[in-house]
Design the sequence.
């Protein structure tokens, strides 16, 4: 049986590439495309696809929000997340009908996903299987929500130009006089975030620490830890200026535990 697929991604090249791969599979019919979350929901309701291949970070609504909306409306469309966020791929979902594909997608991996969906569709007459699909989608939705998938890039302004930089390249960010400065090894610029809290919410908090009310640091970009008064520390960072950043009293304990100091 043919699987009716809706492709959702805010980047046209990514959609085109995925549609091309799907067209090589005899058992698949691509019935539509969407470039944002709002349009995706409209097409899901209109076209009733068997499967939605869904990007996570999109304008309008995120992939997670769309999946949650489908749950709320009890729509049986299957969702497979397609994303470049390889740090959030988990092996636990490899054996489930609800899947998690990483860009760039290997054709054999896509075929595997389509086969899983076909198996589910063929057994959908059994009410228990339909309930199981709902449970799997709900479990994946919870997983994504709990981990708050974050952008892989942030925008900073340096001179008259805006630059998109990978978040992993950030060495530190500091707030001074209501201006947030972001520093990498090769670029220093001003963040478009309004507050340090807003910037922090867009970063992986297993790597980035709010060590001080005015400073966020990449724990992997610390060059040296220097003792300071009252058993606190100063962090010398790996930027060209070897900037020194204080650690607040409340974060000192966490730093000691992390580094076994």
Sequence:
């Amino acid at each position: 049986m043919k699987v009716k697929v809706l492709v959702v991604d805010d980047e046209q090249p990514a959609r085109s590439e995925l549609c091309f791969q799907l067209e090589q599979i005899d058992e698949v019919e691509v019935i539509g495309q969407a470039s944002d979350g709002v349009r995706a929901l409209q097409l899901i309701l209109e076209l009733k696809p068997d499967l939605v291949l869904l990007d996570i970070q999109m304008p309008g609504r995120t992939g997670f929000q769309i999946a949650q909306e489908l749950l709320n409306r009890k729509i049986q469309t299957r969702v497979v997340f397609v994303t470049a966020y390889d740090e959030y791929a988990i092996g636990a979902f490899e054996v489930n009908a609800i899947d998690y594909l990483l860009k760039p997608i290997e054709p054999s991996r896509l075929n595997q996903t389509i086969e899983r969906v076909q198996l589910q569709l063929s057994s959908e007459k059994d009410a228990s299987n339909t309930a199981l699909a709902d449970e799997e989608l709900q479990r994946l939705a919870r997983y994504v929500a709990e981990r708050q998938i974050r952008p892989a890039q942030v925008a900073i302004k340096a001179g008259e130009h805006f630059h998109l930089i990978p978040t992993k390249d950030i060495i530190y960010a500091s707030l001074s006089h209501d201006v947030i400065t972001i520093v990498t090894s090769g670029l220093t610029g001003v963040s478009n975030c309004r507050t340090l809290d807003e910037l922090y919410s867009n970063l992986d908090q297993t790597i980035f620490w709010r060590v001080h009310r005015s400073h966020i640091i990449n724990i992997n970009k610390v060059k040296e830890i220097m003792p300071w008064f009252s058993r606190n520390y100063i962090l010398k960072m790996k930027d060209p200026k070897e900037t020194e950043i204080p650690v607040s009293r409340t974060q000192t304990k966490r730093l000691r535990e992390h580094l076994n100091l």
About this structure: The domain at 3-147 is CATH 3.40.50.2300 (Rossmann fold). The chain has two domains: 3-147, 154-259.
